[in-house]
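Page 47, continued from p. 46.
Same chain as before, 117 aa.
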Amino acid sequence: PVLFICRNNGWAISTPASEQYRGDGIAGRGRAYGIPSLRVDGGDALAVHHATLEARRKVLESGGPVLMECMSYRVGHHSTSDDSSRYREQEEMRSWQARDPVARFRAHLETHGWWDE
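Result:
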């Protein structure tokens, strides 16, 4: 039994995933090999937690593999030698920074009164 977790950040170095391969992601490839697969918003900590629990349950029940694809976005550069501003628009990066997963989780905690300064 194994749980494969793929973080799909939408980029293959400087090539958008949409130009790197056909299809809508990695989860479909798991199904093509007979591996139960699921996709989750990788920027939502609670969704990832719940999806992981479900995937774990499936792994333990079946004794076989499960593939979980966490959709995210690489806000930073690929490496220290990469300048992603050469192939990504500033507005695109700003819109994703506004969806910061840490800020989203903090907002959830604050809503429930579980976070304070």
